[in-house]
Amino acid sequence: MLQFGVPDSSLDYLVRPTAFGLVFHDGKLACVRVDRGEGSYYDLPGGALDGDETEQQAVVREFVEETGMTIRPVSRIVEAAQYFRKSDGAPVNNTGGVWIAEQLALDPAAKVEDDHQLVWLHPHTALNELRHDAHAWAVAVWLRRGQ
User: Fold this and answer.
1) Is 79 left (phi over 0), alpha (psi -120 to 50) or beta?
2) The whole model's pTM is what?
3) DSSP H helices in the chain
């Protein structure tokens, strides 16, 4: 597994199992714009596993919560880890898979995270805009495979 980010040696990073997804439609990638005012950023849809969830279950749940999109995970494209500080300042090391997924349905009313907005970015734009290097790397792997 590749490790991204540079840890601050004065912090204790919680290992946080996660799963994220890559959904493509009409040549664009589903991303979320997370509204933090001046500190807004782009992420791949996904997040932490809850309880004994599998990665597939977590990425399905997270897509609905963040975008209103129902997906079906198809294949795990990469595994990576990313050191970073969450919005609340907590230091974490997200570890887990990024999944190629198929969009099954889109119901904006099903979205529950008000600060997340579904945006469709060209994959090359996503490479530059995604907050996490691990996410950009997953997009680059997908592009190089010529999917």
Assistant:
1) beta
2) 0.95
3) 55-67, 123-129, 133-144
87, 115 contact by CB (below 8 A): no
Confirm if 83 and 5 have CB atoms less than 8 A apart: yes
Cα 101 from Cα 93, distance rounded (Å): 23
Q: How far apart are CA 134 and CA 80, in angstroms?
A: 6
* Residue 39 CB neighbours (<10 A): 8
Give residue-wise pLDDT tens across range 22-65: 999 999 999 999 998 888 999 999 999 999 999 999 999 999 99
Q: Please give the structure tokens belonging to residue 12.
A: 């204790």
CA distance 15 to 36: 24
